Amino acid sequence: MPELPEMETYKTLLGSLIGGQKISDVEIGREKSINVPVDGFTMQVSNQAIKTISRRAKYLIFELQDGKCLLLHLMLGGWMFFGKEEDRPNRTIQVKLSFGEQHLFFIGLRLGYLHLLSPEEVEEEFKKLGPEVLDPDFTLDAFHQIMDKRRGTIKTTLINQEVLAGIGNGYSDEILWHAEIRPDKKINELDDQQLSRLYHSIQFILNRGIQQGGYMENPLYKGDGKTGSYQFYVYDREGKECSRCNASIVKSEISSRKTYFCPNCQQ
Question: What are the structural domains, with CATH classification, of the chain?
Answer without folding.
Answer: 4-125 (3.20.190.10), 140-261 (1.10.8.50)
